[in-house]
Design brief:
The chain is mainly α. The protein is built from three helices and no strands. The chain has one domain. This is Protein kinase domain-containing protein.
């Protein structure tokens, strides 16, 4: 639970959102495993 919350906070820091609706949709999509394409492009592979 704490690790999930940390991941959401990290996503919000690394992927700026401008509206509450955009934030809501992004978190909703993360919960089902959908990561935005432009976020994936910004992050290097480990």
């Amino acid at each position: 639970s704490d690790l999930y919350s940390l991941g959401i906070v990290a996503f919000e820091i690394l992927f700026p959102m401008h509206t509450a609706m955009e934030r809501h949709n992004s978190v909703k999509n993360l919960k089902i495993g959908k990561i935005p394409e432009n976020f994936i492009a910004q992050c290097p592979k480990w």
